[in-house]
Amino acid sequence: MRLTALAGGVGAAKLLSGIVRVSPPEKLTVIVNTGDDFQCMGLHISPDLDTVTYTLAGIENPATGWGIRDDSFHCLERLRELGADTWFQLGDRDLATHIFRTHRLQAGERLSEIVSAAARANGIQTRILPMTDSFVPTLVHTDEGTLEFQDYFVRRKCAPVVRGFDFKDIQAAMPASGVLESIRQAKAVIVCPSNPFISIGPILNVPGVREALQTTRARILAVSPIVAGEALKGPAANMMRQLGLEVSAFGVASLYRDFLDVFVIDSADGDLRAPIEALGIQVHTVNTIMDSTASRIALAEPVLDLLS
Amino acid sequence: MRLTALAGGVGAAKLLSGIVRVSPPEKLTVIVNTGDDFQCMGLHISPDLDTVTYTLAGIENPATGWGIRDDSFHCLERLRELGADTWFQLGDRDLATHIFRTHRLQAGERLSEIVSAAARANGIQTRILPMTDSFVPTLVHTDEGTLEFQDYFVRRKCAPVVRGFDFKDIQAAMPASGVLESIRQAKAVIVCPSNPFISIGPILNVPGVREALQTTRARILAVSPIVAGEALKGPAANMMRQLGLEVSAFGVASLYRDFLDVFVIDSADGDLRAPIEALGIQVHTVNTIMDSTASRIALAEPVLDLLS
Question: How far is B197 from chain A (nearest CA, A)?
Fold first, then answer.
């Protein structure tokens, strides 16, 4: 069964690592958000691509969700001694990815080629695609003005009240080669439990992607990133509240209702089954908390069953 | 006593580390070769500036002469795993310097400002100046054609026969701020025991430098990099031979005769005293081999005595 997944960072990577344990990894294509890509110390950083790549390679840092397991921070320590403004954590091994990517981008290579080379070098059989080869950074419109995503997320710790989002220059961006085809030709599409605004949102805004989801014959399933009114990780719940949406799996389902066939929600949210089904979406309840390898597999199995 | 030194890499750094132990480091200005600067993985590398900086900071790797003591190579190992062409050794702590420099150069800062910031951050009181803020890479004309310096030096291991040198775009380069002034206003100038072609040569070819040396009132002393017909390190002897020069301290003296007052040669080369004095250059013989901290000081002391 050919599968395609839309993915943000940590939550997505956990589910995907479960999926490749119970179905053939080479049949899976992952389309990854690059809206939160940014430059740090002249290096091009792609947080979600790296989290997905490291997790599928089995070298992710389970304590933080980002970076490489047991990494050292000698370069970062020296950068601090030199007086550099190093607000972003750069592990020594992680840094290799950023240098490799930045150097090849500067040499004119496409991001998708670089991601593919890094995946191969990491022994990953799954196809990892950036949503686009263009740089389309997320802009967060807030009550304090428009902020770049990392500025909102890291420096301001999500304190400003969100009014909306934009993805700079995305109207002119093309989906990376394989993105639309993988949605159209898949047997099923999985929307990972990622932030609907800043992880899945950018992917849906790449020209052609939302239309491909609306028109594909693939069965489309999403896993809710909201459990019992709270985000499993990150600012999704806060954003929904500030944007006037219901902070629940129902609120997420309403954002995906134009293309979603099946919504997997947490057992804690059983009371939302009827309202979500009323949107024309099939509902499945299961434990969606992935706090162990076993629980990733325990979530991946029913997801695959629902799609086969 | 205000001192100015012209410096290449390891040999120069050893002598300078002796000098700052026996005279006030803040009275010393070091003008450093940047002819062998190059790009590696998109990073701007300045080998001689780094060797001088690390040595004066007391963090140099004594085993190799380049890089930082007890550095790790985790980033480089990962770069290799990713399939990057990493022929240059990049330690994790060393890498911080390259990232810091590259990022600030890309932001439009001058190399000399960056070098100065790095020196301050390393607690160095000596003023370190690149010879120029411009990129003037050394080109080696050989019997196999013209090669970039790192290509000749690292990849070809100095095998091609040298016919001459050029420093790309150097005619249009300006000396870095302070370079000419420090030569004109010093009480004395020390030409370190560095390769006369590819370490001191580029400095002498920066417009205005050779004239400043010829006309300054400062007493000018050089320490021979050639002892008993052999270079202490690197390809200097080979280059002299291939260019048809006498491979000796005399050969080096003849390259500097238009500005040199005093030449410090090794005790092993006492027979060269008369021929060098015949060039109008005062000669002093001493042990010039710096294989310990004590021997660096033992060389620095007579050098300073000769200049005071």
Answer: 31
Is the separation of the CB atoms in B48 and B150 below 8 Å? no
User: CB distance from B17 to chain A under 8 Å?
Assistant: no
List the beta bridge partners of residue B227: B230
End-to-end CA, chain B:
8
Q: How many residues comprise chain B? A: 308
Q: Which residue of A has its CA nearest to B86?
A: A100
Q: Is B229 exposed, middle or buried (0-12, 13-18, 19+ CB in 10 A)?
A: middle
How far is B36 from B200, CA to CA, in rounded Å? 11
The ipTM, to two decimals, is: 0.92
Q: What angle do CA B99, B103, B107 make, to 5 degrees?
A: 170
Q: What is the pTM of this model?
A: 0.94
Instruction: Supply the pLDDT for residue A47.
Output: 96
Coil vs helix vs strand at A191: strand
Closest CA to B249 of B275, B226, B279: B226
CB contact (8 A) between residue A74 and residue B78: no
Strand B282-286 to strand B138-142: parallel, antiparallel, or no bridges (unpaired)?
unpaired
Chain B, window 56-115: residues with a beta carbon less than 8 angstroms from a chain A beta carbon:
68, 71-72, 74-79, 81-84, 92-93, 95-97, 99-100, 102-103, 106
∠ CA B76-B81-B84, rounded to 5°: 70
CB count within 10 Å of CB A119 equals: 21
Q: Which residues of A192-214 are buried (b: 16+ CB within 10 A; e: fewer)?
A: bbbbbbbbbbbbbbbeebbebbe
Greatest CA separation for chain A: 59
Sign of CA dihedral A256, A16, A188, A206: positive
How far is C-alpha A165 from the geometric centre of its chain's CA atoms? 16
Each residue's pLDDT expressed in tens, for chain B with a length of 308 residues: 899 999 999 999 999 999 999 999 999 999 999 999 999 999 999 999 999 999 999 999 988 888 999 999 999 999 999 999 877 889 999 999 999 999 999 999 999 999 999 999 999 999 999 999 999 999 999 999 999 999 999 889 999 999 999 999 999 999 999 999 999 999 999 999 999 999 999 999 999 999 999 999 999 999 999 999 998 888 999 999 999 999 999 999 999 999 999 999 999 999 999 999 999 999 999 999 999 999 999 999 999 999 98
Phi, psi at residue B81, to the nearest 5°?
A: -60, -30
CA dihedral B94, B45, A118, B71 (to 10 degrees): -10
Query: Is A65 a residue whose pLDDT tops 90?
Result: no
Contact B42 A102 (CB under 8 A): yes
Structure tokens at A235: 């600012």
8 A C-beta contact, residue A153 and residue A36: yes
Is B269's Cβ below 8 Å from some Cβ in A?
no
